[in-house]
Each structure stands twice: as structure tokens, then as C-alpha cells.
Amino acid sequence: MARVAFIGLGVMGYPMAGHLRKKGKHDVTVYNRTPARAAQWVREFGGASAPAPREAARDADFVFCCVGNDDDVRSVLYGESGALAGMKKGAILVDHTTASAILARELDARTRELALGFLDAPVSGGQAGAESGQLGIMVGGDPAHFARARPVLDLYAKSCALIGPAGSGQLCKMVNQICVVGVIQGLAEGLNFGQRAGLDMEKVISVISKGAAQSWQMENRWKTMLENRFDFGFAIDWMRKDLGICLAESKVNGARLPVTALLDQFYAQVQARGGRRWDSSGLISLLARD
Predict the structure, then answer these.
(1) 284 touches 235 (CB < 8 A)
(2) What is the CATH number of domain 171-287?
(3) Among 216, 218, 225, 275, which has the minimal tally of Cβ within 10 Å of its Cβ?
């Protein structure tokens, strides 16, 4: 049993921390910017909560972080009350936030100065994957640190792979998001086309989901997309944040992302229509009849 700190109890972090306590039987201390959320987690799973990241991280073998963006990560890790100030030498920081590769390399350098380990480990699978413990975890960092953390990560992973050095996990997540939005737009156009053609879309999906068109988005989102239900899932605000990271990185490495850039504009249109918190499948709303 390890001593573990988990910082950030959003829709992803809350169940992930729960798996560490319930399935792994680890000694878990949590921190969340909204104390009531941390108190709720303790009531459900046991463990303890701390008033600041530094206290949560004190004496922990592993410190996990799952917050919103680069600035959020820095706010809970740096400074006198930040987690890095409380971590003991030899402990490993695992950042599950979808953030920039620049931040990952920054944290790798900083933790080395402090004799700590670091892994950037963004996840894929959404809230459902976090709750069922079936996430895909893409990791960047030192192989020795990965080997130590792997048994803990496996508590909520369907797949977990070391991609390369620090920053590689974040770059892999960018590839994931680029692929996902392309699939969503293709699915949206296909569903809209079939519906306008008067087809029975349940029958259509029953056939094409068994062939080359199959995807997670098709299996899990076709029905809600046709019903115009988007009040769940991965928010468009967060998808735009992720696409902004992808587009910024493409300027660094020279990759051309014409479709991704266009879909980012489409998502901006959905935001302007009031869909900021809609699931990312809300792209289909732009194709609806007036």
C-alpha cells in the first residue's frame, strides 16, 4: 500500500482517486479547490482531505494531479502552498491534466532539481472511462519512474503505455484529440445526411458500426446526436482548449492541421450559440435545419 495524494476532483479526478482508494486500498489524501467536493469524496471513499496541495503531498510516494490547464497545474504545484513544496525526495509527480508539452518539460526539469520523479500522463476515455476504470493513459517520462508508477496507474487504466521522454504523453494526447474531432465531424455529417435522406438511422448504424466506419464516437454518441442531447460528456470548452494546444504545437513542429483548424472554428460557433458546456458531439447542431 502506497501513500498517495490526488489533486483535483473534477469529473475525471474524482472517480480516479476513488479507484486508488477502493481498488488499490492505498492511503489517499485529496485536495480540491472547492473543499466541499473533497469532503464529499472522503465521505464516499474514506481517506483524508487536506487544506492545501502542500499538505496533501506531504510524505506521499505518488502525487497525482488532474486539473484544467497549464495555469491551473502551476497554481497547485508551485509556491509555498504548492504540492512540490511538500513532496519528499524520491516521490513521483504524475500529471493527468491535458496540458502543453512545454509544461511537461518544464515540470520534468523542475522535479529533477528537487530529486523527484515526473510523468506527464494525460488520459482518454472521458467521464465514463474514469468511472469504470477503463482509461487509456499515454505517458511521457523516465522508464524507471514509469515502472514504479505503473501498478498504481493500472487501477484505472484499460491501457497504459510509456510513449517516450517527458512531453511525449502530452504530444500523444494531441494526436488523440486531432483524430477524435475529425471522427465527430464525419459522424455528424453522415448522420445528418442519412436522416435527411429518410433512412432508419438505427438500422443504418446497426450495419455500418460493424464495418470500416466503426468508432467509439459512433457506438456511444450516434443516438444522442440525433436526439440533439449534449448535456453530458466532454465539454466543448475543454475540447477547444485542447485544440488550441494542438494548433500551437503544430506551429512549433511544422505539422499542417487544416481540418483541425476548421473544426476549431466550428466549435467556436457552437460556443457562440450557447453550447460551451455541451458534449463535443454537439458539432452536429451546426447542421440542423433552420
Answers:
(1) no
(2) 1.10.1040.10
(3) 216
